[in-house]
Amino acid sequence: MNAELDLALERRIGKRSAAVIEKHLGITTVDGLLNYFPRRYMSRGELTPISELPLDEDVTLIARVLSSSTRTMQARRGTITDVIVSDDDGQQGLRLVGGRDFRGKVPGTLKISFFNGYKAKTELLQGRRALFSGKVTSFKGQLGLTNPDFQLVDDDPFTDSGQDPEKLAAMPIPVYPATAKLPSWKIQKTIATLLETLDLDALPDPVPTEVSAREGFLPVSRAYRLIHVPESADDWRRARDRLRYHEALVLQSALARRRAQLAAEEATARRPVGDGLLAAFDANLPFTLTAGQSAVGQTLAAELARDTPMNRLLQGEVGSGKTVVALRAMLQVIDAGGQAALLAPTEVLAAQHFDSIRRSLGALSGDGLLGGLAGGSGVSVQVTLLTGSMPTAARRQAMLDAASGTAGIIIGTHALLGDNVSFYDLGLIVVDEQHRFGVEQRDALRAKARKPPHLLVMTATPIPRTVAMTVFGDLETSTLSELPKGRAPITTHLVGLAENPAWAARIWARAREEIDAGRQVYVVCPKIGTDDDGDFSPGEAAPPGAEGEEGRELASVTAVVEHLLAEPSLAGVPLAPLHGRQEPELKTETMAGFTANRIKLLVSTTVIEVGVDVHNATLMVILDADRFGISQLHQLRGRVGRGGLPGTCLLVTALEPGHPSRRRLEAVVATTDGFVLSQEDLKLRREGDILGASQSGGRSTLKLLRVLEHEDVIARAREDAQHIVGGDPLLAGHPELADAIEKYLNPEKEAFLERG
Ligand code: ADP
Ligand code: MG
């Protein structure tokens, strides 16, 4: 705890200002406001080109008054003051240091209207410069601002009160994330007041002095001053570098501490036995493991055999064969007397895993009735499915089998996290398709074992290194970088119905060709019915720009099924719908029918997004593909081309060419490299979506650190954090860092402190 930082704001800036800040920014403490950083800086010499102002956004700009006129309104009482401003400064004959040269260009002008603007009328006289803040609108082609906040900029070197004009002109103006009601400079003034009243030297510094010395950092007090009140661009850059590192170090130390805590835990060692299930499984494997699968397998085998818990992330492209790697790890644990749980994100996927794992175990999978006597080798394991929608009796039996130890492998959805589910001796947890499961859920499952279990998290979405270091910073990482041999390429085409409506019919003729050749087809829709808002999977945000376009009717499973039943080119083709609102038995039956090639064409929502594995499916048609995110599309198309047969994916869109949402589709068409796509995806998403709630358990968002941009800062901070925590696991010698971590992990705690 730091007395200065945790102080209620009103104790430093007064009740009135504190109330305004709380109302508009939701900030109540000194710490909160001090860490409310400018989004960018403008230099006073720099004139924002009016022609480049974005419409409909809150902007802050400096401009000079060309003319001003006030008239009385006709319809109601009052006056309108129209002020025309320009970013052309040349004619004023003023010296501008570091200014832009607008000569030779047509200067942009902006009309600013004030209703009953007495202050505007008296202050905004011709030739004056001012900062304006408001929302830019366009009326009959003329850019405008209505009733913006404004403040005269006192930078006229001829009237200035003795300040060095060069220096003044060079002084950057911080631009804070503002609201319409609380403009940037009011925030700036309030923070300036705070800086005056604060004992800056009493601020804690979580960065160790050795590190500061090595990096040549500003002292923390100086950094806070200069990030808010810089005298030069160099000032704020240095301040920002320092505070950004500070942020990275706190985050990485939190993760390093968590890793250290996990590593210090005692787990049950599950040593390989040589003649058990795993050996029998390997002997019957119908293919050879890829080099990557073998290497990762060895890493896992060694870690499972240790008496500290394994905490590992396994990344690998769709189809790279993660499941067999996970299954082999599970068998090692079962051979050593433990149980393994496999957690899947959807019921369909859990059921698929259940079927395919039992299938690949063959005779090794005892069904309980045979009581472990099945198979030539004399060993077997019971595989049990446990999902939320199972009939009560079956679920109760599954829970019993998990608790008694009868079940060796328990496969399920988040139902496995339920309070009433317990295990006899849970040795390994495998989490499939991690992007749906956060740290909290991992911890909830971990809590189900008597001793901390080993953990393997699998994801098909390749994660850039820095994201791995932040979001999954508590896990070690392994990657499967090659696909098993015989995997045929997937060709992806963009089908733009806007430019070529006739293609709509062609799609179904193409599907028919595939089916006539004995193959199967997926058709994916963004919605279930005609009256719902879409079926974006839980935890998966709708992609940017997905909402509220044109109000056109999106393809829904029910409408498309109806349409296809009447489609001449598909006459006689057995087809079926599949979506999340169906009864579980129906879903299972449909999936089984598709797997057995009785159903030729499956119309579904994204329930087939992950993991579903039907080798005979070769064509995927994604309708209104613009409604899906890049990773989703990449995952979806990974469902075809699995059985050595070349796959085709058609991304169908009704959007006009050039529509921003078509960028995503073009990216997916352009490459099948998941890594490139995930980078692209992250660029198009907002930072908060990347980190989400899974961010090491903390709920606060990053301020100065950008996960994609600041890879080197994150890497250095990670190394430093590892070093600090390694030498001082409890951070006894680093109390200020320990406090900062605490604050980061529990930001809401601050709200309860000292408020009067
Ligand atoms: P994912 O990594 O997407 O989860 P899966 O584990 O579902 O991939 O594997 C995809 C398919 O590849 C499965 O049918 C699986 O049996 C098969 N497979 C896995 N490893 C190999 C291998 N080494 N050689 C050939 N086929 C493999
Ligand atoms: Mg998988």
Q: Number of domains in the coordinates?
A: 5
Radius of gyration: 31 Å
Quaternary structure of the protein: single chain
| Mean pLDDT value | 81
Name the beta content range. Answer: 15-25%
What summary fits the major beta sheet? Answer: 8 strands, parallel
Runs in which pLDDT lies below 50 for 5 or more consecutive residues are 90-105, 155-162, 368-377, 534-550, 686-700, 749-756
Q: Which secondary-structure class do the elements indicate?
A: alpha/beta
3D shape: globular
How many helices? Answer: 25
Which fold name corresponds to the CATH topology of the largest domain? Answer: Rossmann fold
What would your notes on this structure say?
- With 756 residues, the protein is α/β, with parallel strands linked by helices.
- It has 5 domains: 1-39 and 178-198, no CATH class; 41-175, Nucleic acid-binding proteins (OB fold (Dihydrolipoamide Acetyltransferase, E2P), Beta Barrel), CATH 2.40.50; 202-264 and 710-756, no CATH class; 277-480, 3-Layer(aba) Sandwich (Rossmann fold); 490-671, 3-Layer(aba) Sandwich (Rossmann fold).
- 35% of the residues lie in helices and 17% in strands.
- The chain has 25 helices and 23 strands.
- Helix 9 (233-264) crosses helix 24 and helix 10 (277-284) runs antiparallel to helix 12.
- The longest helix has 32 residues, at 233-264.
- Adenosine-5'-diphosphate (ADP) binds at residues 287, 289-290, 293, 316, 318-324, 460, 484, 611, 613, 642.
